[in-house]
């Protein structure tokens, strides 16, 4: 077997494994079923791509979005990995199937609905499958924030190939979701590997909303570098962007309702700029690689703690100091509670728990980072020294009282 470090270097051009990558890859190479929980950007793909190259046979990757698959395909092909996607959007399916059967693929990306079809199982039995990688594995759990019923159909498929190792990967799993993924995908509890979620250079601050425009303007004055302001509505992004433009600061807006060319141009301008503000809905940010984002502001409550962590995590990827500031209002909670009324019974407990956790985050008089990290299953020190509550402890707040006020239905 080739030396893994040599392969890491020769195939990917990396000098070393990062964080828990080595641990995950070693388990996969040993054939052990594994769930890797690693934050976005930690390098989850490598955990199956490297074994895919090292092992004989093909690694079948289940991925929820065709766009994601095609991004991955481009990246893998660029470094010389033999990869293909098998989706309704591909017109070379016949060729791909032939390559798969001939053992001519390291990686084959498929969507969960294909994976659950009977003829796909037959195809797998006529090829050599080295590994099943289940990306975005939280989709298998009703506790997760992005449940996909098709993911539930994976288990019988995996179980019909009991000797093929399986690796589930996710960035966003609270303890409940995580336990559920293990059960749903048949992974033993000792197969769980959790990477460090701490982003020590990000300073967290959370304030009640008074005058959002004024509060954002104050923040922008303190933060000259590039930053993102998340706004809840499409119209809201354009309105706030116009207000910021009036102050002379370079600014763009981004939301799913803009023409694709405008969206792409705004994104490119932001990525290239050292001072631009991007006012955006949460449609902005996935797959954007800008290391020097100095602040992420939320003009309103994010959807969940996972979403908050993911969105704020776009700040300070270069390791230099960065700020994450959220401005929330009681009406955000009122709206969120209202939405709970529209959720079906199965999802209700999960959604309710998510909202309660968010309530805890905004109301805590203690360390924000400690609360976040505990939510992700870590055991952090009680105070981080780099969040608003550690830097200036709040006086006389009865958090329980406040939480009750905002959360009681
Ligand atoms: P995730 O899926 O966890 O969000 P990706 O797999 O997309 O992360 O990887 C994020 C980035 O990190 C990619 O640009 C990838 O090339 C890079 N990367 C992954 N592993 C390493 C490593 N060991 N050394 C350096 N860069 C790495
Ligand atoms: Mg990924």
UniProtKB/TrEMBL annotation:
Its EC number is 5.6.2.4. GO terms for biological process: DNA recombination; DNA repair; DNA replication; SOS response. GO terms for molecular function: 3'-5' DNA helicase activity; ATP binding; DNA binding; four-way junction helicase activity; hydrolase activity; metal ion binding. Residues 25-191 form the Helicase ATP-binding domain. It catalyses: Couples ATP hydrolysis with the unwinding of duplex DNA by translocating in the 3'-5' direction. Residues 212-359 form the Helicase C-terminal domain. Keywords: ATP-binding, DNA damage, DNA recombination, DNA repair, DNA-binding, Helicase, Hydrolase, Isomerase, Metal-binding, Nucleotide-binding, Zinc. Its cofactor is Zn(2+); Mg(2+). It comes from the Bacteria. GO terms for cellular component: bacterial nucleoid; cytoplasm; replisome. Belongs to the helicase family. RecQ subfamily. This is DNA helicase RecQ. The chain holds residues 1 to 409 of 585 of the full protein.
